[in-house]
Amino acid sequence: MKCKLIAAAVAGTLAAGPALADLVIPDLSYRTGPYAAGGTPFSDGYQDYFNLLNARDGGIGGEPIRVIECETGYNTEKGVECYESTKGEGALIYQPLSTGITYQLIPKATVDQIPLHTMGYGRTSAANGEVFNWVFNYPANYWDAASVMVNYLLEENGGSLEGKTLALLYHNSAYGKEPIRTLEDLSKLHGFELKQLAVDHPGQEQKSQWLQIRRERPDYVLMWGWGVMNQVAVQEAANINFPMENFIGNWWAGAEHDVTPAGEAANGYKSLNMNRVSDLPVFGEIKSLVHDAGNAAGDGSNLGSVLYTRGMYAAMLASEAIANAQEISGVSDITAAQMREGMATLNITNARMEELGMAAIGPEFSVSCQDHGGNGLGIVQQWNAIDKTWVALTDYIAPDDSVTGPLIKEDSAAFAAENNITPGCL
Amino acid sequence: MSADFLYGIEVLINGLMAGVLYALVALGFVLIYKASGIFNYAQGVMALFGALTLTGIMSGQVPFAHLINATFGTHIHNFGWNVPALGAIALTLVVMVCFAWMVQKFVFRHLVGQEPIILFMATIGLAYFLEGMGDLMWGSDIKKLDVGLPQGGSRWVEDITAGLGGDDFYGFFIDKLDMVATLVAAILVISLVMFSQYTKQGRAMRAVADDHQAALSVGISLNYIWILVWSLAGLVALVAGIMWGAKSGVQFSLSLIALKALPVLMLGGFTSIPGAIVGGLIIGVGEKLFEYLIGAPFLGGATENWFAYVLALIFLVFRPQGLFGEKIIERV
Predict the structure, then answer these.
(1) Closest-CA residue in chain A for B243?
(2) pLDDT single digits (tens) A250-283
(3) Which residue segments constitute the domains of chain A, with CATH numbers given?
(4) Membrane-crossing residues (chain B) (predicted)?
(5) Contact: A207, B144; criterion CB under 8 Å
(6) B168: closest chain A residue by CA
(7) Cβ of A227 under 8 Å from any chain B Cβ?
(8) What is the CA radius of gyration of chain B?
């Protein structure tokens, strides 16, 4: 009996072991803890798209996709543990959805030669592909976001921000501090005054910052927030009667759950977005082939929300890079190095997005060995609290590359010098 | 009066009100520590769990829906009814009392006589269990909490004080929710003091707090008293959860409000209800004034979290038992 049990256990272990032909995609998710409200919809969208490809197409290029979910709780140490425990499975790409985890994984992934995709977060200067060979942050980064915000405000103010005051309300962390250099340069260029207001983690208490805003009456408040900081900020802005149309969050401060707790008081709040939110045909396919088949990553309630859409968009970009890598290498069962090649030569077109059932979900862009950052476009959207929908106010707005470009060059050169990296393409 | 001076007064008033909210969380810690010597690490999570349960009941959410659906392939999420706020608060209190009974029955009854560090570790386990249970029962999405509390600054106060300091002064900003929280906290503290002074159960609670072996010898049931104390801590946690949840929506970061209570406890002492209140007020005013006068202008801001602990540490150096804590006398 004992022998039978051991044999069954061994057989079970072998059966449960990694199927080497799979395309392995770890999902470093956070469905628990203070940031779960943001992590859950993103992860749902990320996984559901891969599940759709498995259900509809049998994977990518005939290879099934195996998603390995690992809970990080948005905790950097746990994120690194997740990376270490999954990289041996043949991981092709990591999408950590955390700037803190990204900073820890950059040196590790570079040594292990596994690509990191930090979409709109992480280390901004990773856009320089000659220094960060294994890190990609397309289609846009934080410095793009800061520049897009300022360009939008320039447009709103007849091309001049001279004499205006912009307050940056930011999460007091590596993430929140990312746009400061860009905004400082932009303030010199456009003649506006920049005031910085830091909010400590988690951001549950912001009375001091909002009293300061009430006293100093800046023309605009820009927000780099995440988690509870966003909901409290929107409520506090409403409390002091700050005009919501002059309050703009970045793309991590513009989901439904950031505004719904404040109810109708949040009406008019604006945020950036790197992807459009609309009723895409692909959602119908996900509903019928994934959710109705009982293979949804979550409970299905997040389908179509801002962060669900972004997670799905991230999965689409990963799957397109896989298909590209398969085409370049001529094999379907690609390696992480081949995946990197697929990402470095990725070309996303409107025609392709339409073909995938997600027309204009993002801008057209292409990636190169030198440029891992895409073109940095973003839209401005506004919350309609009556209809409970985000309404796109603008088309895709371009950042000011003449400001962000030198900053990226400078920061990446410093990183290369610190780490003895000789810049160049692989 | 200059506008700067008046804004300083405004910061002070808002600091006092923030202090009341900190004190609300600290009260729960004090109740349990006083009666049983347990530092309840789970107090913040109890506030979260109470608020989650309240919003779940109010919106008619089916508890464990995700688990039920995954197991049985069903698609149930909602009972299809809404419960009025007062009814939902009453039902949530019943849940908190059941929780208190379960904590006593399944955890602390088996740990009687153990070292304080063991009891503390048990509450850490309890915190993680309760957080997971909350997630499993009600989901991790952010829930709007609307029990009819007012939001926003008081326009009346703003209007009558506008102009006191010239054109640069826009009137005092006082959050209506903070005013309600202050009132509720005052009622809660008076009720708790009256309960402990003038009721049989309250006197029994105080007897257990003074010497539980002596209390046992005169026929007081420790089991009953500890369930009562955990229930009261559950009530305080629910009130704190409502006040904080009304500001930010009910979400899992609510459990971190416990961090705001620690400096209050260090300052006010772990065994004094007035200490929790006064400690909360000192921390609230101290951190807000420091941020206004020094933190924001000279240190880049975001000083409140660490300054609260610095303030508490300064008090600790001169009075280790806290402002109102019982004096520690070790006889050898």
Answers:
(1) A204
(2) 999 999 999 999 999 999 999 999 999 889 999 9
(3) 21-141+278-376+406-418 (3.40.50.2300), 142-276+378-402 (3.40.50.2300)
(4) 12-33, 45-65, 85-104, 111-130, 179-199, 220-244, 264-285, 292-318
(5) no
(6) A215
(7) yes
(8) 21
Separation of alpha carbons A116 and A133, rounded Å: 10
Q: How far B151 CA lies from chain A's nearest CA (Å)?
A: 7
Over the stretch A48-60, which tens digit does the pLDDT of each residue have?
999 999 999 999 9
Residues B159-194 pLDDT 10s:
999 888 788 888 999 999 999 999 999 999 899 989
Task: Report the residue from A31, A200, A204 with minimal CB separation from B248.
Answer: A204
Rounded to two decimals, the ipTM of the complex is 0.88
Helix (H, G, I), strand (E, B) or coil at A321: helix
Residues in Cβ contact with A298 at an 8 Å cutoff, skipping those fewer than 6 apart = A31, A40, A41, A43, A44
CB contact under 8 A, A204 and B257: yes
A216 touches chain B (CB under 8 A): no
Burial class of residue A229 (count of CB atoms within 10 Å of its CB; 0-12, 13-18, 19+): buried
The answer to whether B244 contacts A204, with C-beta atoms less than 8 Å apart, is yes
Q: Please choose, from the candidates A215, A176, A175, A226, the residue with its C-alpha nearest in 3D space to the C-alpha of residue A196.
A: A176
Beta carbons of A122 and A162 less than 8 angstroms apart: no
Kindly report, residue by residue over B217-244, the tens digit of the pLDDT: 999 998 999 999 999 999 999 999 999 9
